Task: inverse folding
């Protein structure tokens, strides 16, 4: 295991699994896309059905954490309400896993973007608004 691998792993001592004691060190997945620190600095694991959405505008970048079941319409409403931005729905793209820019027009396009993010196991969609 390389040093960079060690930086991303914490060890869980004395935990229980399957109602029995854990007799060996068990690595915890501390991927920042899968866990956060709450206000009390306790580790909180995110549900597996969450997505990270990066919304890139000409002058601002916003990050959202949403359920994978959110609709395209709800994403647009969320961005408009939370950030006071008027969105042109005809000028939205996302960057797929091979860095191609794909136009998001409707719910079917959104479902494809979500499927691709889940398939790549990075659970992130980078959207561009122009």
Result:
């Amino acid at each position: 295991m390389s040093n960079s691998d060690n930086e991303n792993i914490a060890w869980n001592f004395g935990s229980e699994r399957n109602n029995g004691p854990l007799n060996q060190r068990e690595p915890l997945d501390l991927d920042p896309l899968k866990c956060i620190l709450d206000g009390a600095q306790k580790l909180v694991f995110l549900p597996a059905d969450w997505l990270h959405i990066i919304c890139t505008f000409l002058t601002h970048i916003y990050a959202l954490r949403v359920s994978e079941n959110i609709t395209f319409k709800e994403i647009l409403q969320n961005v408009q309400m939370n950030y006071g931005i008027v969105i042109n729905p005809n000028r939205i793209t996302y960057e797929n896993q091979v860095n191609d820019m794909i136009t998001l027009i409707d719910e079917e396009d959104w479902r494809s973007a979500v499927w691709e993010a889940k398939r790549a196991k990075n659970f992130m969609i980078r959207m561009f608004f122009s």
Q: What stands out?
A: Residues 3-45 form one domain. The longest strand covers residues 50-56. Residues 1-30 have pLDDT under 50 and may be disordered. DSSP finds three helices and eleven strands in the chain.
